[in-house]
């Protein structure tokens, strides 16, 4: 009834959310059902390799959701940077929190480790998406096509004028770089604003928890029959873990984004911003190509340092042909 009521309101107000609501409801049912079957097997087997694999799958799916389903703008190399930032922050906080805050021995106990990782990833995803989106919005270039009338002919004939619009912060960054500022100094105001906006939901959630809102983990434990104070203790630990993982993920992802858009020669590179959602296979192809070029460079450096690279024209040409 609640779902139908929301759909009816969307139809009545013309919000055009019916399709999105239906897809979201269908995904919720299917994904939770699959998760339930998978977790039953993981909890029964209780093997550390399977638990870590499950956590890695969750991290990969979270990265995919940010870039290929949520992001309106992306930049070159965004998938790898988001994957590393999210994985490092959530795994570090998850392992330390499970072992020392929750006193789990071993730390990978699936009944608590996997649900904790899920909560950390859900909040970290939201924060990283807001932070990266803020940076890309502040440094964007908009090309607006506008009709204008030609002065020498009738006003009914129009021509297209392309106007280049930039954000105020982008102009400030370019001015700072032109006056000799480093990319850290030029991008610091944007970084501060992006991190503040990204961390604001987590801070607000921590402010009202227990006073106005009763969080889901605490509610579930109380309904399941756990002592109330134990539920309170675990909820406090989870909230601090969420704050730590979100902070680490947001800071690292925003910094990498700025370092990508402002190169090491102190040049602003807005052309690296891509409008719209990227294609997964295209990014995989680019990643494999970059990996192959990196392997070739390592091979060249290895042969050069060990003295296997002959300086003769014949051998040099043969190696160049094989490695090209």
Automatic annotation (TrEMBL):
GO terms for cellular component: plasma membrane. InterPro entries: UPF0014_fam. Keywords: Membrane, Transmembrane, Transmembrane helix. It is found in: Membrane. Its main location: membrane. The chain crosses the membrane at residues 21-39, 45-67, 79-101, 113-136, 197-217, 237-262. It is a multi-pass membrane protein. Belongs to the UPF0014 family. This is Uncharacterized protein. It comes from Jimgerdemannia flammicorona. The lineage of its organism: Eukaryota, Fungi, Fungi incertae sedis, Mucoromycota, Mucoromycotina.
